[in-house]
Each structure stands twice: as structure tokens, then as C-alpha cells.
Write a structure and sequence with these properties.
Blueprint: E1 2-9, H1 14-30, E2 35-42, E3 49-57, H2 61-69, H3 72-75, E4 79-85
Antiparallel strand pairs: 1-3, 1-4, 2-3
Length: 86
Amino acid sequence: MLYAILFVDDPAKRSVREAQMKSHLEFLARHNDVILAAGSLREDASGNPTGGLWIVDVPDRAVAEALYLADPFRTEGLRSSVEIRH
């Protein structure tokens, strides 16, 4: 099943994005069989990232949740909120 996972970053934790970018990208690469698309979101093209969006193909919502919970951006505190939509 396809799910969209929308992330909003904690503005007070912007340094986490830079510090964890390599680990985050490695995480995405390890899961490229189920994370079909991923990218940062910005208020405008030249702005700083304020969140992110993944499109995932997983069996159910529980797998989608487990996936994002393991992401270094989340484990290191960058994400302030997450929404999963089917």
C-alpha cells in the first residue's frame, strides 16, 4: 500500500539536519526498496528545509510507522510532528 509521510521539523533543532544528513541519506538508501520518493520541503525554493515528505510502499500503516521511527532525523530529534496518510 502506498502511504505519504509528511514531516515537520522543529525549528530549534535545525543543526540536527546538517549533523545527521549523511546518516539520514544512508538510511534512505538502505530502504530504497520501500521508500519510493523522499525529499525536503521548504516554504519557497530558496528557503531552508522545514520538513520532508516520503512516499512509501509498505504492507500497512504499522510498517510505515516503524520505518520513520528508525530514521536518524527522527531519533536525533529533528522532527516535531509526523503525519501518515493512505
